[in-house]
Amino acid sequence: MQTKNKVFVKINGQEYPIVGVEPKDYLIKVGTFVDDTMEFIAKTNKHLSTAMIAVLASINIADQFLKTTTELEKLQKEQSSPKEEVEGWKTHYKDIVKELEEKNEVCALLQRQVEDLLLYKEKTELENEELKETLKVKDDELNKADNIINELRNKVLDNQMKLVEAQNKLEDLINRNEQKNYYNNKNIKK
């Protein structure tokens, strides 16, 4: 249980006790406020009784209280609007973070696919290099075989030419021999 404080305050010339759980300074401030309000009303209307001054002071204080309460409610509504807006932004932020996480997952998947494709490309390039090397070896072998074939063709042509020359010589020899035999046979018959 909270301790109650008690102060004595002079209001409109009379001393009144004020009791509350608030600090003594605050209780004195409340009493002084009521006294100032009553004193202002009494100075502006000197013909009013103490009861009428008290009622008018209560009305003025109630008016100030209601206006302050209305202003407070207005400020609270104005304050709640940014709070609602902040809540909306928080929700929007969470949605964006979730969307970003999803896009990060997609990005990571795409990154893995790119890495796989790069590995595949590298492997394919190595295989292509091996194939190129094999093709080069085969091409070299084919060129050597072509050279051998060309050499053999040249030898065949040379041999054909030599054969033709030999056949020509042989025919020439045969013709000479036949002529010789012919003359020999002619000379023998004579």
UniProtKB/TrEMBL annotation:
<dbReference type="InterPro" id="IPR007838">
    <property type="entry name" value="Cell_div_ZapA-like"/>
</dbReference>
<protein>
    <recommendedName>
        <fullName>Cell division protein ZapA</fullName>
    </recommendedName>
</protein>
<dbReference type="GO" id="GO:0043093">
    <property type="term" value="P:FtsZ-dependent cytokinesis"/>
</dbReference>
<keyword id="KW-0131">Cell cycle</keyword>
<comment type="subunit">
    <text>Homodimer. Interacts with FtsZ.</text>
</comment>
<dbReference type="InterPro" id="IPR053712">
    <property type="entry name" value="Bac_CellDiv_Activator"/>
</dbReference>
<keyword id="KW-0717">Septation</keyword>
<dbReference type="Pfam" id="PF05164">
    <property type="entry name" value="ZapA"/>
</dbReference>
<keyword id="KW-0963">Cytoplasm</keyword>
<dbReference type="InterPro" id="IPR036192">
    <property type="entry name" value="Cell_div_ZapA-like_sf"/>
</dbReference>
<dbReference type="GO" id="GO:0030428">
    <property type="term" value="C:cell septum"/>
</dbReference>
<keyword id="KW-0132">Cell division</keyword>
<dbReference type="GO" id="GO:0005829">
    <property type="term" value="C:cytosol"/>
</dbReference>
<dbReference type="GO" id="GO:0000921">
    <property type="term" value="P:septin ring assembly"/>
</dbReference>
<comment type="function">
    <text>Activator of cell division through the inhibition of FtsZ GTPase activity, therefore promoting FtsZ assembly into bundles of protofilaments necessary for the formation of the division Z ring. It is recruited early at mid-cell but it is not essential for cell division.</text>
</comment>
<feature type="coiled-coil region">
    <location>
        <begin position="93"/>
        <end position="176"/>
    </location>
</feature>
<keyword id="KW-0175">Coiled coil</keyword>
<dbReference type="GO" id="GO:0000917">
    <property type="term" value="P:division septum assembly"/>
</dbReference>
<dbReference type="GO" id="GO:0032153">
    <property type="term" value="C:cell division site"/>
</dbReference>
